[in-house]
Write a structure and sequence with these properties.
This protein is of the alpha/beta class and 440 residues long. It contains 17 helices and 14 strands. Helices cover 44% and strands 15% of the residues.
């Protein structure tokens, strides 16, 4: 059963963010590392080893590690374009319709985001900024326990809107036959992507960062992944750009006694379904709602095919927190800075400004988080682990760079030079001072 906590109890357990600093490495994962690498290594060390192998040996290392880790012997790293076109014919028409609708809404939403060059003459001469799309971007699409075509659309389309000309996708081979699932290839085709590589895990990140004989090096890597993908992104940052470091997915719900218990329960179950480390938390001042949601979760759980995963998630990271009022619920939710924050109250608009920290705000029970996962429009690649305090969802600005434009007229240059010289002298940088005074 989902636990009910007081605020004090929750703050010392499910709301603690410092748990991220010391992630638990399950015994099964430790055993897997030892089996694959032949010795006991930390995940960080194992990833570092993989990165070096790919950097030094290129394609040969990619084939070797894909066989060793995924158990798949590849004939080719790149998916044939014909295979991508054929995959579409294997997908039911209603699913293709849904993917097309999602793609259209994602494109429309991101087309509204301003990323413009501008100049001004108000400061003497011409000053401004130039916005330039990145040349080549790598998109990592997780495979894991389920294929995620939605993640492909949510990552690729904002890059296209930004004007990126070269977008390559990497995704792991399927568990059943060693092929990328048709649904992933169909999504790539719908998005207009021609280049897909059968690569997962840290080796995929290494290939995108360093480049190999087959896989071109990119300027930025985006997309969520498992622990090894996240560690690899962290280790290659600086060689390439990254969008963020994503932990397990998370949702908090703020609700009062007007909320429908069955809907709240369904939303929490949907979040917990992702994996055993997912987080689903309800903040409410209503003990009646809390009890009703408890009962609904138990009832609905019986009919879900990932019930075991959900049960572990809710038992370890989930819970219901009884707050004094909705203002306290909003404060706790903002302090937690969740990936998804859902407001299910009588007048949800009243509480928007009380939650400055959230990857996505879902206002009202009809704007539920699952719609955001698939078809609402904004990218579902959002900051996790409390990083919504300073980070943003994946968006058009992730795929451009800004150059400052400085073209001062003679009079302004002459006027500013003495001030620059004075500051340079105070800093002890006499060469800087000299460069300024030479113009006087």
């Amino acid at each position: 059963m989902l636990m009910i906590y007081s605020v004090k109890e929750a703050q010392t357990s499910i709301l603690r963010r410092d748990r991220v600093l010391e992630p638990h490495v399950p015994a099964t994962l430790q055993a897997g590392i030892k089996r694959i690498f032949g010795e006991a290594l930390t995940p960080e060390t194992a990833v570092s080893h993989l990165l070096n192998e790919v950097r030094q040996k290129g394609d040969a290392a990619l084939y070797q590690w894909t066989q060793r880790i995924d158990g798949v012997k590849l004939d080719s790293l790149q998916v044939n374009k014909q295979e991508m076109e054929t995959a579409v014919t294997h997908i039911p028409a209603d699913l293709i319709e849904a993917l097309n609708l999602a793609a259209d809404r994602i494109r429309t939403f991101h087309s509204h985001q301003p990323a413009i060059s501008w100049t001004t003459t108000e400061m003497g001469g011409i000053l401004g900024q130039r916005v330039t799309p990145l040349k080549r971007v790598g998109v990592y699409v997780p495979g894991g326990t389920a294929p995620l075509p939605s993640s492909l659309l949510m990552s690729v389309i904002p890059a296209q809107v930004a004007g990126v000309k070269e977008i390559v996708v990497t995704t792991p081979p399927g568990k059943e036959n060693g092929r990328i699932p048709d649904i992933i290839l169909a999504a790539a085709h719908i998005a207009g992507i021609d280049t897909v590589y059968t690569l997962g895990g840290a080796q995929a990140i290494a290939a995108l960062a360093f480049g190999t004989e087959t896989v071109p090096a990119v300027e930025k890597i985006v997309g969520p992944g498992n622990l090894f993908v996240t560690l690899a992104k962290r280790q290659v940052y600086g060689i390439v750009g990254i969008d963020g470091l994503y932990g397990p997915t998370e949702t908090v719900v703020i609700a009062d006694d007007s909320a429908i218990p069955a809907w709240v329960a369904a939303d929490m179950l949907a979040q917990a379904e992702h994996d055993v480390l997912a987080t689903a938390i309800l903040f409410t001042p209503s003990i009646e709602l809390a009890t009703a949601v408890q009962i609904e979760i138990g009832r609905q759980l019986e009919n879900l095919n990932r019930a075991d995963t959900i049960a572990v998630s809710l038992n370890n990271q989930g819970g219901i927190v009884i707050t004094t009022d909705l203002d306290e619920a909003c404060q706790l939710a903002s302090d937690f800075a969740a990936e998804h924050t859902c407001i299910a109250t009588k007048k949800p608009e009243r509480y928007i400004d009380k939650i400055p920290n959230a990857g996505g705000l879902f206002i009202g029970e009809r704007s539920f988080e699952v719609l955001g996962d698939y078809v609402a429009g904004p990218s579902h690649v959002m900051p996790t682990s409390g990083t919504a305090r300073f980070a943003s969802p994946l968006n058009v600005l992730d795929f451009v760079k800004i150059s400052s434009i400085i073209q001062l007229d003679d009079a302004t240059s002459a006027k500013l030079s003495p001030y620059a010289a004075r500051i340079a002298r105070a800093e002890g940088l006499t060469a800087h001072q000299n460069a300024a005074t030479k113009r006087l």
